């Protein structure tokens, strides 16, 4: 098979790494890719939102399977365009990707089908949003831009004045662009956060192993929200009882709800969960692999990824026995200092060769590129995702942090406490 992966981050590098293991795959292309992905795939200089050129390339290169990794092209309808051109494509169509594309839609869906989530209200008028905050809100409270905002469109406000500023930031100043045309005001939930990625074929859902992200930029969960500073898998708090509840009241219920709405979902549903005292509730949905969740989940998967993807497309996922290694994985993101606000890039990266000879260690590239001499350089806020496995979370965490020392570049920044709270809890 010839496979085209659409995207340029650590998630796409993790996907490419798994795809490259399949005996069914002869050639991998990635558009636009990055310097790390280039070791596995032929990178094509086409941006993820350039649908016309992507479709033309897929036809010309006789692509057998296209995997869309990123949220923007999914929400924009790339799967529809590819399928219309006769290209087998993995990911939800536009009318199903709205599950991530509009938080207001997803909240209304959960309300309609009694899927456990936080109480909320949707607003398109900033004045009415402020009135609601003044009259009815309990603090702290959560403000969410409706649309896509690179994982950063969520504000947790401690008091009324902070919440009013948040409304102005999202809806009037348009900090997150048109994503803030509609805003969700949501009850603040407390508990353990867990992420569960799942394969879906329109009617059957197969959850993967659990994971947990670290969104805040600084140690101790301080600083601004980012796209994710590190992850671990599995979560020890995602018990068999939690899984059984979610299977019954959240996972299958979501797939059935989308089908009932005439929006059958094929692809990946990412469930962001909060394990509250009242039971698990949905924080958010994503319509693709998480980043950096994919970087700890996919290395633990035993199945051939191509087999599972084809089962999703063909509607026979019920015949797949999804299996994961009985181990753990931790990913530590190496970022450019100053991320997610302002940062410098263009620094040479050293020490990457070490990962080629060490089993159980991975370095997934996110923001990297080649310079004119072929040297790998930093090219983004999140630069690399250093992942390591171990027999348990403690060992995996120690291995991951050991491996971060192999890599050197100016301006290197990372959190030093990915999974630390779990170490202490255990």
TrEMBL record:
Pfam families in alphabetical order: GARS_A (PF01071), GARS_C (PF02843), GARS_N (PF02844)
SMART domains named among the record's database cross-references: GARS_A, GARS_C
Entry EC no(s): 6.3.4.13
GO process terms (BP): 'de novo' IMP biosynthetic process; purine nucleobase biosynthetic process
Catalysed reaction, written as an equation: 5-phospho-beta-D-ribosylamine + glycine + ATP = N(1)-(5-phospho-beta-D-ribosyl)glycinamide + ADP + phosphate + H(+)
UniProt cofactor(s): Mn(2+); Mg(2+)
Keyword terms of this UniProt record: ATP-binding, Ligase, Manganese, Metal-binding, Nucleotide-binding, Purine biosynthesis
Recorded family membership: Belongs to the GARS family.
Chain ranges of the ATP-grasp domain: 107-314
InterPro entries xref list: ATP-grasp, ATP_grasp_subdomain_1, PreATP-grasp_dom_sf, PRibGlycinamid_synth_ATP-grasp, PRibGlycinamide_synth, PRibGlycinamide_synth_C-dom, PRibGlycinamide_synth_C_sf, PRibGlycinamide_synth_CS
Pathway connected to this protein: Purine metabolism; IMP biosynthesis via de novo pathway; N(1)-(5-phospho-D-ribosyl)glycinamide from 5-phospho-alpha-D-ribose 1-diphosphate: step 2/2
One MF term in the entry's GO annotations: metal ion binding
Highest rank taxon of the organism: Bacteria
Organism name: Mediterraneibacter butyricigenes
Protein name: Phosphoribosylamine--glycine ligase
């Amino acid at each position: 098979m010839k496979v085209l992966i659409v995207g340029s981050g650590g998630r796409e590098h993790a996907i490419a790494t798994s795809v490259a293991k399949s005996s069914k795959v002869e050639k991998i292309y990635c558009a636009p890719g990055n310097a790390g992905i280039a070791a596995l795939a032929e990178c094509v200089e086409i941006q993820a939102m350039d649908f016309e050129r992507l479709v033309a390339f897929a036809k010309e290169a006789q692509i057998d399977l296209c995997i869309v990794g990123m949220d923007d092209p999914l929400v924009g309808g790339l799967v529809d365009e590819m399928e219309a051109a006769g290209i087998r494509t993995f990911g939800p169509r536009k009318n199903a990707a709205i599950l991530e594309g509009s938080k207001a839609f997803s909240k209304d869906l959960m309300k309609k089908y009694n899927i456990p989530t936080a109480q909320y209200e949707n607003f398109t008028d900033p004045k009415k949003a402020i009135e609601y905050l003044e009259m009815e809100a309990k603090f702290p409270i959560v403000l969410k831009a409706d649309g896509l905002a690179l994982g950063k469109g969520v504000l947790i406000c401690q008091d009324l004045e902070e919440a009013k500023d948040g409304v102005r930031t999202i809806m009037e100043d348009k900090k997150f662009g048109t994503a803030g045309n509609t805003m969700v005001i949501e009850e603040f939930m407390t508990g353990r956060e867990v992420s569960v990625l799942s394969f879906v074929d329109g009617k059957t859902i197969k959850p993967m192993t659990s994971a947990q992200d670290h969104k805040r930029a600084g140690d101790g969960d301080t600083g601004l929200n980012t796209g994710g500073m590190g992850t671990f898998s599995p979560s020890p708090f995602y018990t068999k009882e939690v899984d059984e509840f979610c299977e019954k009241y959240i996972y299958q219920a979501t797939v059935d709800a989308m089908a009932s709405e005439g929006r059958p979902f094929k692809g990946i549903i990412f469930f962001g969960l909060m394990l509250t005292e009242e039971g698990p509730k949905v924080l958010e949905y994503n319509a693709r692999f998480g980043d950096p969740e994919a970087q700890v989940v996919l290395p633990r998967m035993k199945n051939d990824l191509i087999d599972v993807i084809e089962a999703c497309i063909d509607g026979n996922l019920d015949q797949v026995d999804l299996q994961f290694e009985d181990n753990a994985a931790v990913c530590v993101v190496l970022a450019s200092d100053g991320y997610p606000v302002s940062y410098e890039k263009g620094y040479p990266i050293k020490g990457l060769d070490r990962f080629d000879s060490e089993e159980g260690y991975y370095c997934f590239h996110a923001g990297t590129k080649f310079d004119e001499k072929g040297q790998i350089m930093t090219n983004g806020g999140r630069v690399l995702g250093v992942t390591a496995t171990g027999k348990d979370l403690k060992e995996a965490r120690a291995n991951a942090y050991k491996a971060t020392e192999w890599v050197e570049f100016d301006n290197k920044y990372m959190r030093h406490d990915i999974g630390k709270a779990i170490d202490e809890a255990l």
